[in-house]
Specification:
The protein is α/β, with parallel strands linked by helices and about 260 residues long. About 35% of the residues lie in helices and about 20% in strands. It has ten helices and nine strands. It has an eight-stranded mixed barrel. α3 packs parallel to α5.
Length: about 260
């Protein structure tokens, strides 16, 4: 794979401090809950502007010239904030495959951040979040395998949307997949999507892949998904992202209808 235009070795200090980009940003955290144990399984780090501007405004400043630096900075900032907040759960961080030149080099900043801030590597999930088609599946497989060898957990984000589907899973097995919210929302009244999700769940059981349902906003959708055997959920039904903080999940949110 060609080296990113903005590639150079980076340290976690300059990334976390926002010194490698011509713009700065921070993170919000949204919980991923386990409704079987009534515990927070993980928190996903989501980019936000310094004054709580939405992720779209931050991502609009990312281009081919700064994609690598942005990817590295996201990881370092997420780890630093998670450690500062005393996050007891797993930490889920998005990464862009097209920003990874060589996995053994590009992961160094993340490993350094984990060591510097005392956040265990085995409690970090790295999510594949590129919506564009990744033609070099061998390269992506190398990334996932190397991250796993380093102790990280891996996930495919937005599964069922765009290019993140069964074809990708057939070539690259991650620890986790996150079902896209387009499959989840209003699933309680949609037999077609129910059948699709049940099929995906069976495939994941056969492959020993953990499933998280994203975008859960209603108790009715939660009830249907729980009846299929899903235990891990993320969405506004439980909590919205908390700006530089850990959201409180109401006890009542765990119960089905």
């Amino acid at each position: 794979m060609n080296r990113p235009k903005d590639y150079r070795p980076l340290g976690c200090g300059e990334c976390a401090g926002g010194r490698v980009l011509d713009f700065d940003f921070t993170m919000a955290f949204q919980p991923i809950v386990n409704t079987a144990t009534h515990e927070v399984f993980a928190h996903e780090a989501l980019a936000r502007g310094l004054h709580e501007e939405p992720a779209g405004q931050v991502l609009a400043q990312v281009n081919d010239g700064n994609r690598y630096r942005f990817d590295q900075t996201c990881r370092a900032k997420a780890v630093r904030l998670a450690a500062r907040l005393g996050m007891p759960s797993l930490l889920s961080i998005n990464f862009m495959p097209k920003a990874v030149y060589r996995p053994e080099l590009c992961i160094r900043t993340t490993l350094e951040a984990a060591e510097t801030h005392g956040f265990p590597v085995e409690r970090i999930i790295l999510e594949i979040t590129e919506s564009e088609k990744v033609d070099d599946h061998a390269h992506l497989r190398d990334i996932v395998n190397h991250y796993a060898a380093c102790g990280f957990k891996t996930a495919i984000d937005d599964f069922g949307a765009g290019y993140a589907g069964l074809n990708l899973l057939s070539e690259i097995q991650t620890d986790i997949i996150k079902l896209d919210m387009a499959l989840i929302r209003n699933i309680d009244g949609d037999k077609v999507r129910q059948a699709i999700v049940k099929g995906i769940l069976q495939v994941c059981r056969d492959l020993a892949v953990t499933v998280i349902a994203e975008g859960v906003e209603t108790r009715e959708d939660l009830t249907v998904l729980q009846s299929f055997g899903v235990e891990l959920f993320q969405g506004y039904h439980f909590a919205k992202p908390a700006f530089e903080a850990l959201a409180l999940v109401p006890t009542s949110a765990y119960a089905s209808a």
